[in-house]
Amino acid sequence: MRSLWFLLPIFGGATTFLVILSVATANTTLFAADYPRLLMGGATVALLLMGLIAYQLAMLYRKWRQQVFGSKLTFKLVLLLVGMAVLPGTLVYGVSVRFLSSSIESWFDVNVDKALTAGLGLGRTAFDSLLDDLVHKATTMSSVLADATALDEFSLLQQLREQFGVQEATLLSKNGTVLAFSSARNDALIPEGLTLTGNISHQIRAQRPYRMVENLPGKGVFLRVLVPVNRISFTEDFRILQLLQPVSKELASNADQVEAAWRGYQELLLARHGLKNLYRLNLSLVLLLTLLTAIVLAFVVSERFGAPLNALAASTRAVGAGDFSIMTPVSSNDELGVLTASFNTMTHQLREASMARQRYQQGLTEAKIYQENILSNLSAGVLVLDPHLHLKSANFSAQQMLGLAGLEGITLKEWGYRMPLLLPIIDFLEKSFSDSSAQGWEGDAEYDGEQGHRKLHFKGSRLPEGLGADWVLVFDDITQMVQAQRYAAWGEVARRLAHEIKNPLTPIQLAAERLEHRLQDRLSEGDAELLKRSTRTIINQVD
């Protein structure tokens, strides 16, 4: 099974490379551009496969030299199955290479090449014929427009366009400015003008027509012809007649298809040798994968035929894993049967010893569980540190209060790197351990944790040397108790302060009441009312 798991990455790499080769087969340009990389990748995969085969053979040879049970049988089966795979695989490989070469050559027919070339030439001839006809119409129209005045240009151009069946006709100045425009389409817009490139301007000035086939976006394929309207001279101005005639969609589509087919055939023709090499490389990798599969099958079949040895090996692994209940059946009286009987006797003795050890271990486990249950139910936190202050264990309350999960085996100083909030506690503990006596110490520490400001009371004591000299640290959260003490103290202070404040106000209240009683009959009605309100205010504020 380990060999099978080890083969998975190799098979994955080989499969990935075969997929890449398949993609390259469908794209001749990609294959031609990336052929060195593909060749390097194929060589790498082949070397990995050959290295794996060499490794498996070396392992088999070493087991055979070490007289490992089943090694001879495995070695014979490997040779047999590899031979069975190599001979027919090589034969199929040779026949396949020959068949692929002849098949690829049959793809390229001289008649197909001639037919595509003739079709391409026929399309060009058709376009040339249409251009010649349009040039003839433009020449005839230019001779008529040569003597036309500026007022008659538009009507004459419209008449000539309809007469010769042209879709668009435009009369331009020598600078490309539109002088007159006529179109068979009602929604046609007047063009902005024409930019006379060097080639167009040169041909027009030389009294030669300019002709071309254009693919206008959103409109289709058009024939464009430009001819001079009047003769050129050093003093006389001249004009340019431009005709646009659409090509039928069927003719344009057929021409494009013929050209695309001819171009694809030429690319395929150039990639003929590359395709042969590509298929040879694919077949070579398939042959290597077949050999590797034969080796894997050899191991699998050898395990099936070596069932007695495998059963004994399984029992050995079970004993090594601690399972002494398996007894291997003795199926023969030869050396293998004697070995199996001896192994069963040894397994029985080991089972008895293991049961005794398990009973002892169970007692220790129960005692430990009992102790852990007691510690986990304590509200106080309990920590056990070794002499070098490495955390050995912590009960549930300690983990909840300080968040010590996952810190077993970590020193106090390293706690600060993982939990910076505990730095005040860590500094306090390190100082307490360094300053404490051999018996123990006690003290309080404060820190700002995730639950706010907390105050803890610690008490540390050291175990005897016979028990490992570990430190046992017991602590409790006294934050609420301290807050309650503070609240009680502040309450007493507030009560006394209120009493001290109220003492001098009582005589003031009594004096105000007496003053009201003595003066209310002696004052006028308005002053008496004012005195009454003032006295009520003093009494209410004192109360």
UniProtKB/TrEMBL annotation:
EC number: 2.7.13.3
Predominant location category: membrane
A Gene Ontology cellular-component term: membrane
Catalyzed chemical reaction(s): ATP + protein L-histidine = ADP + protein N-phospho-L-histidine
Transmembrane spans: 42-61, 73-95, 281-301
Its membrane topology: Multi-pass membrane protein
Keywords, sorted A to Z: ATP-binding, Cell membrane, Kinase, Membrane, Nucleotide-binding, Phosphoprotein, Transferase, Transmembrane, Transmembrane helix, Two-component regulatory system
Positions of the HAMP domain: 303-355
Entry's localization field: Cell membrane
Pfam families, per database record: HAMP (PF00672), HisKA (PF00512)
GO molecular function: ATP binding; phosphorelay sensor kinase activity
Annotated protein name in UniProt: histidine kinase
Species in which this protein is naturally found: mine drainage metagenome
